[in-house]
From TrEMBL:
<dbReference type="Pfam" id="PF00389">
    <property type="entry name" value="2-Hacid_dh"/>
</dbReference>
<dbReference type="InterPro" id="IPR036291">
    <property type="entry name" value="NAD(P)-bd_dom_sf"/>
</dbReference>
<protein>
    <submittedName>
        <fullName>D-3-phosphoglycerate dehydrogenase</fullName>
    </submittedName>
</protein>
<dbReference type="GO" id="GO:0016616">
    <property type="term" value="F:oxidoreductase activity, acting on the CH-OH group of donors, NAD or NADP as acceptor"/>
</dbReference>
<dbReference type="InterPro" id="IPR006140">
    <property type="entry name" value="D-isomer_DH_NAD-bd"/>
</dbReference>
<dbReference type="Pfam" id="PF02826">
    <property type="entry name" value="2-Hacid_dh_C"/>
</dbReference>
<keyword id="KW-0560">Oxidoreductase</keyword>
<dbReference type="InterPro" id="IPR029753">
    <property type="entry name" value="D-isomer_DH_CS"/>
</dbReference>
<dbReference type="GO" id="GO:0051287">
    <property type="term" value="F:NAD binding"/>
</dbReference>
<keyword id="KW-0520">NAD</keyword>
<feature type="domain" description="D-isomer specific 2-hydroxyacid dehydrogenase NAD-binding">
    <location>
        <begin position="127"/>
        <end position="304"/>
    </location>
</feature>
<feature type="domain" description="D-isomer specific 2-hydroxyacid dehydrogenase catalytic">
    <location>
        <begin position="31"/>
        <end position="334"/>
    </location>
</feature>
<dbReference type="InterPro" id="IPR006139">
    <property type="entry name" value="D-isomer_2_OHA_DH_cat_dom"/>
</dbReference>
<comment type="similarity">
    <text>Belongs to the D-isomer specific 2-hydroxyacid dehydrogenase family.</text>
</comment>
Amino acid sequence: MQDTRAGGAPVRLRIGYLGKPPHPTFFELARAHPELEFVEIAPADSGEAMRAPLRACHAYYVRASRQELPKPLHVTAEFLAAVPNLLAMVSSGAGFDPIDLAACTDAGVPVINQAGANAQGVAEHAVGMMLGLLKRMPETGAAMRAGRAQDRAAFMGREITGRTVGLVGIGNVGTRVAAILRAGFGCRVLAADPFLDAATVAERGAEKVELPALLAESDVVSLHCPYDATTRGMFGAAAFAAMREGAVFVTTARGGIHDEAALLAALESGRLAGAGLDVWVDEPPPVDHPLLSHPRVIATQHTAGVTDESRRRIARYAVEAFADIAAGRRPPRVQNPQALDRYRARWAAVFGREPGF
């Protein structure tokens, strides 16, 4: 049965996409919404050839990783000018790196992500890295594989229980990390988040502090902030130098927020005891990347949120978002609400009636 609350009968919505959706259940769930029509974009040598099918579409299902999407299909001002009929951009994940948010706002195009869908998977991954690094698992494994096993006391680890963990950003993932650390290990959790007040941070399970205090007081620092102009390169030599000596650094956020060369230097100098890296500037990183082979690094290939459960939720969230657009409802999780006034007018012009919000 169709859900048409507040929006009237759904319109026929054509959606362009490239490659497989994040989970096979995406199309299974979409079958319950016959108003959704999917247009596959075939890979081509020409950006024009790949963009052509999108001119007949109302929405674009955008791959969330900037390095998994051909440059001509990144959503820029030039892209939007070439496909002016697109009404909305829906990311295939919580991130939306390939989408220029300001350009979409200027064009009256809402950007919808799937924030929260993979929060549990990413949070578990981040906490798992913290535990592995404090117990020096990468070092002991590397030593045994190299035939350099030593007296076990040479790999003396630390317990996370009762330690201070600093979260840079406390959105969906950070909130879940805080809950796990507090309930499971009795940690003191600090959070630096410029968008939230102290009361909101407290509701999410942490103490609000500014970044310098977080770096100075935390045994573990974990990044859960978006990648944008304000966070690009935020963790460089100065930030690592400001961290507590022997602290552990973890990131499941985005590559480019931390400077990889500066991190390597901080590990080599002994300033940091270890690093857990799920995200990289180049994904995957080159096989000779020095951080990949470092004995005090846990390295994964942007897989923190790649769980069956997370991907199922991402698929469901996306289908529901497209169904809301087709029914003329306010799209969920809009990252640029300033675009909505113009979006309403554009939606009405395309479908011949006012949307229901």
